[in-house]
Amino acid sequence: MADVSGIVTKKNINLGDYIKKGESLYEIADISTVWVLFDVYESDIPWVKKGDKVEFTVRSLPNETFNGEVSFIDPVINSKTRVASARVIIKNPGKRLKPDMFVRGIVKSELEQQEKVIIVPKSAVMWTGERSVVYVKNASSDKVSFLMKMVTLGPSLGDGYLIKEGLEVGDEIATNGTFSIDAAAQLAGKPSMMSPEGGVPVSGHNHGGASHSETMTMEEMSIGQKEKDALSPLFEAYFKLKNNLVNDDFKAGISSAKEMTTILNKVDMKIFKGEAHDFWMKRSDVLSKELKKAISTKEIGELRKPFEEISNQLIMILKSFGAMDKAIYIEHCPMVNNNNGADWLSLESEIKNPYYGEAMLKCGEVKQVIK
């Protein structure tokens, strides 16, 4: 007889089996009190401490919220998933929480006392892996214009970043539409994320030169259905490439990169007019170079590097030209580039990480939906 009561979670014998002395017949679990285990991303570990309050939900129990506190944090990070495990122990009246249920939690953590703490939304920050920038409203201009500022990011904090350097209390920043602002800055030959020193205004096919202007005015660009139809195959090929990386399929990834190149070369630049034409020429030039890098790679880790910039360019196109014929999700992994993070596009809200594939398939979050 078992010396504990509970629920049989595993049966190790069948009718007619011979039983040896000391052999385990069943595994029994008492689930009146349960352990809830959370994966804590490496970048979030500084914020999670023993005793922190946790609020979590269970996918199979919608519209209900559970509460507990962190009782233990694994001191060792999993070398494959790059996460640590945090344990919450809670009472389970009615035994509604079952083993292996999927939960999602939010930790409520206190910031250390500092004289000045500046936190900005993640949507306000743009980065290339080497630099992070935000656009600050230019108070001296009569028009709505913005000045690019380099910033030093601190730890990720939910939907925001703590800013260590680069901003002052009271600065007004752009929190949405930053890709459009940056694209307009590039077209105007002014400092931007990709060209921090600026350049001459883009006209036709001229992309060189230098400029001393530091501010720019945000302008909207729009295209018609004809232009969107021309770009649609390019996005479809991109989604194939993204899925190949999710599946760790290098050979198929190279094939998709070649397909993107073929489609890109077939897009008729003449269908884009005015500023949209100049913008497209800039984006297509960068895409062509990055796709060439992708095709020349020898293994999947190398292929993922140009994929980041390919994604950035398509995100700029999507945000500047507007929604296509279906909802597209901008998703973000905080672990890429030494925890600076990177974005990608997806047709589904479920996270499937192309930067890590099977190793960290679910690492990431939805930043924005464009539809």
UniProtKB/TrEMBL annotation:
Residues 235-324 form the DUF3347 domain. One of its GO terms (molecular function) is transmembrane transporter activity. It holds the Pfam family CzcB_C. Residues 118-181 form the CzcB-like C-terminal circularly permuted SH3-like domain. Keywords: Transport. Belongs to the membrane fusion protein (MFP) (TC 8.A.1) family. NCBIfam families: RND_mfp. This is Efflux RND transporter periplasmic adaptor subunit. It comes from Brumimicrobium aurantiacum.
